[in-house]
Amino acid sequence: VERTLSIIKPDATRRNLTGKINAKFEEAGLRIVAQKRLHLSTAQAGKFYEVHKERPFYGELVEFMASEPVVVQVLEGEGAIAKNREVMGATNPANADAGTIRKEFALSVGENSVHGSDAPETAKEEIAFFFSGLELVG
Length: 138
Ligand code: GTP
Ligand code: MG
Description:
Blueprint: E1 2-8, H1 10-14, H2 18-27, E2 31-38, H3 42-48, H4 58-65, E3 70-77, H5 80-88, H6 101-105, E4 114-116, H7 120-130
Antiparallel strand pairs: 1-3, 1-4, 2-3
């Protein structure tokens, strides 16, 4: 089965929405197989989002992700990467479908409550960024 890396972002942890967001994942058939709460440093957030380095919102994104704790997690299930992105909804909550996490909880395109890997290769890299082999029970 497939695995993907998910992050519950600071706007959501601040509003105590971790459980409600996790319920959405579980209702969609995604299993939370690893999970931990971290407060990222600016350097760590900057490294995680390095692919967006040239984008105009990079600085703002990094500051936001390091502003308060996040919950990083590994979701597992059939087609987990695509399924997770479906449950998350569009990047901008104004464009997100009804019932998605971003439609229900996101505040703006920046403070959009969740991150999810976008492809098998990035999922692998992003899981390894946060979790060691010991933390990933097969
Ligand atoms: P992720 O799952 O977080 O990667 O979201 P995504 O794949 O839907 O969006 P993308 O990879 O294009 O952008 C990564 C993140 O950068 C988004 O989730 C937003 O938090 C942030 N972001 C994207 N566009 C903007 C923007 O115009 N302004 C701000 N402030 N942040 C943005
Ligand atoms: Mg992305």
